[in-house]
Specification:
The protein has 84 residues and is mainly α. The protein has one domain. 51% of the residues lie in helices and 0% in strands. It is built from 4 helices and no strands. α1 packs across α2. The longest helix has 14 residues. It starts with 8 loop residues before the first helix and ends in a 5-residue tail after the last helix.
Length: 84
């Protein structure tokens, strides 16, 4: 399908920049963005390796502020103390 969309010059410049960063031409990049936007979301989002790395980095950003737990906190007795 052919689709003609008029966009502002600054948007075209940004699309062109992003397309070049992904190593594709602007038409292919714009088509991929439209396809992604139209895709029905799945129940769970899968992260690519870069997104996973970034998420883990964000999670660990303030980990030095988390207090250390004593080893006995991880003993079987403490983990299952509410069970028979």
């Amino acid at each position: 399908m052919t689709l003609v969309i008029e966009i502002k010059p600054e948007i075209q410049a940004e699309l062109s920049r992003q397309a070049a960063a992904h190593g594709v031409d602007i038409v292919a990049y714009a088509a991929s963005l439209l396809e992604e936007a139209a895709r029905i979301p799945s129940t769970g989002k899968r992260l690519n390796q870069g997104e996973l790395d970034e998420t883990l980095r964000e999670l660990s950003q303030f980990s030095q502020k988390i207090p250390l737990l004593p080893e006995e906190a991880f003993s079987r007795e403490n983990l299952y103390r509410d069970h028979d």
